[in-house]
Automatic annotation (TrEMBL):
Residues 236-383 form the Acyl-CoA dehydrogenase/oxidase C-terminal domain. It comes from Saccharopolyspora montiporae. This is Acyl-CoA dehydrogenase family protein. The keyword Flavoprotein applies. InterPro entries: Acyl-CoA_Oxase/DH_mid-dom (IPR006091), Acyl-CoA_Oxase/DH_mid-dom_sf (IPR046373), AcylCo_DH-like_C (IPR036250), AcylCo_DH/oxidase_C (IPR009075), AcylCoA_DH/ox_N (IPR013786), AcylCoA_DH/ox_N_sf (IPR037069), AcylCoA_DH/oxidase_NM_dom_sf (IPR009100), Mycobact_Acyl-CoA_DH (IPR052161). The keyword NAD does not apply. Residues 9-123 form the Acyl-CoA dehydrogenase/oxidase N-terminal domain.
Length: 389
C-alpha cells in the first residue's frame, strides 16, 4: 500500500486545498468543524448552504460516474479530498446519507428511471435522505423487520415503525427495508422502498439522547404511500440491496469519520496543553496512544479501500476498530477535562463539547451493527469458525 501521492494526485490535492481556502470564508469559516455525531443540531441550515455550495462547484458525489453528476474520482482522490477537508476544518456535511449510501445503491441496483429521478437531487443536495432499517424488534438483526408494505394498484401502502433513524427530522425521503410478502420470515420477502417523508402517513418523533440533543428519531408509517416503481431491485429481493447499502456505508464513508476524529483529537490535545493535563504522564501516554491509534485506524481503512477485492465481511473489522477507538476518545476527553467535565455548564442540561462527546460515543459500539454482531461476522466469515447457536 503506497501512501505517497502520484503527480496527478498531488495536483488534485492542490486543487482541493485551493478551493477550500478560497471558499471557507465569512460565516462558513466561522462555522469551522461544527456538526457531526452528537452535534448534528449545530447550525444545520448553514451547513446545508455549505453543502449546496460544494455541489454547485462539483465537490459532491466524487466517486459517482460523470453521467450521474460525479467526478469518477479514484479511491486515492476521495481520500485526499477528505484529508484536505479535515485540514481546512470545514463544517460537517449534511447530505452524506443520500450521497454515500443511497446514491451508490441506486447506481448499482436501481433502474435508469430511478437514477434519473433521484440522483440529481442527491448530487445537488436538494433532497435529503434518511435510512429506515432498525426497528424496536430488529436492530442488529435486520432480517427480523416487521414493517410491512402492500401493493395497492399503482402504489405501496406502508405500516410499521422504524427507530434510531438519523436525521429523519430533516429528510425529504427515506429508503426503507420492509416486508412485502405476507407470511415470509427472515431474509425472504423483504423489499427496499423509497418513501417520501412529507405526507400524512408519516410521523417523526425525535428521541432525546443522553446528550440532550435529538439526531435520532422514531418514524411511524401509518398508511404512508409510495409509487409502485419506487422499489429498488425486485420486490422480495430487498435483502441483497440492503446489504449492498451497508457495504457502501462501511466503505469510503469511514474516511469521513476520521475527519471528525482527527479534529476531536487535535482539540483534546490542545485542551491538555492549556489546562495542564499534558503534564500528567498517564494522560500524556493515553494522548500519544490515541494519536497512534488514529494512524492505525487510517491504515486499516486504507488497506480495505485500496484492496484488490471488495471488502465484504472485512468491513466488520473496520467497524470494530473505529467504534472502540472513538469510544476511548470520548473517555479520554472527559479525563483530560478533569473536574470541569463532571458538571454541566448551566441549567437544565447545558453540556460542553467533551461531555457531549463522551456521552454520544457510548453508543458507537452499538449502532451501525453492535460489536457482538461484528465479532460473529469476523469469526464465521473471515476466520471460518463454526456458527454460534
Amino acid at each position: 500500500m503506497d501512501l505517497t501521492d502520484s503527480a496527478a494526485d498531488s495536483a488534485f490535492r492542490s486543487e482541493v486545498r485551493q478551493w477550500l481556502d478560497d471558499h471557507l470564508t465569512g460565516e462558513f469559516a466561522a462555522a469551522g468543524g461544527i456538526g457531526g455525531p452528537g452535534r448534528e443540531h449545530e447550525d444545520f441550515e448553514l451547513r446545508l448552504a455549505w453543502d449546496r455550495l460544494l455541489a454547485e462547484h462539483g465537490w459532491t458525489c466524487l466517486s459517482w460516474p460523470r453521467e450521474y453528476g460525479g467526478r469518477e474520482a479514484t479511491t486515492e482522490q476521495q481520500i485526499i479530498f477528505h484529508e484536505e477537508y479535515a485540514r481546512a476544518n470545514a463544517p460537517v456535511r449534511v447530505g452524506h446519507i443520500g450521497e454515500e449510501l443511497l446514491g451508490p445503491t441506486l447506481i448499482a441496483f436501481g433502474t435508469e428511471q430511478q437514477r434519473a429521478r433521484f440522483l440529481p437531487g442527491i448530487a445537488g443536495v436538494r433532497d435529503l435522505w434518511c435510512q429506515g432499517y432498525s426497528e424496536p424488534g430488529a436492530g442488529s438483526d435486520l432480517a427480523a423487520v416487521s414493517t410491512a408494505a402492500e401493493l395497492d394498484g399503482d402504489r405501496w401502502v406502508v405500516h410499521g415503525q422504524k427507530v434510531w433513524t438519523s436525521l429523519a427530522q430533516h429528510a425529504d425521503w427515506c429508503f426503507a427495508v420492509v416486508r412485502t410478502e405476507p407470511g415470509s420470515s427472515r431474509h425472504a420477502g423483504l423489499s427496499y422502498l423509497l418513501i417520501p417523508m412529507d405526507q400524512p402517513g408519516v410521523q417523526v418523533r425525535p428521541i432525546v439522547q443522553l446528550t440532550g440533543t435529538s439526531e435520532f428519531n422514531e418514524v411511524f408509517f401509518d398508511g404512508a404511500t409510495t409509487a409502485a416503481d419506487n422499489v429498488v431491485g425486485e420486490p422480495g429481493q430487498g435483502w441483497r440491496v440492503a446489504m449492498g447499502t451497508l457495504g457502501f456505508e462501511r466503505g469510503i464513508g469511514t474516511v469521513d469519520q476520521q475527519v471528525v476524529f482527527r479534529r476531536e483529537l487535535a482539540a483534546i490535545t490542545e485542551l491538555a496543553e492549556s489546562n495542564g493535563a499534558a503534564q500528567d504522564p498517564v494522560l500524556r501516554d493515553r494522548i500519544d496512544r490515541a494519536h497512534i491509534g488514529l494512524e492505525a485506524l487510517r491504515c486499516t481503512v486504507l488497506r480495505m479501500l485500496c484492496g484488490d477485492t471488495p471488502a465484504g465481511p472485512q468491513s466488520s473489522v473496520v467497524k470494530l476498530v473505529w467504534s472502540s477507538f472513538h469510544r476511548g476518545l470520548g473517555e479520554l476527553a472527559l479525563d483530560v477535562a478533569g473536574a470541569d467535565g463532571l458538571t454541566a455548564r448551566g441549567a437544565p442540561y447545558d453540556l460542553d463539547t467533551w461531555q457531549r462527546l463522551f456521552l454520544f460515543t457510548r453508543a458507537d459500539t452499538i449502532y451501525g451493527g453492535s460489536d457482538e454482531i461484528q465479532r460473529n461476522i469476523v469469526a464465521e466469515r473471515i476466520l471460518g469458525l463454526p456458527k454460534g447457536n
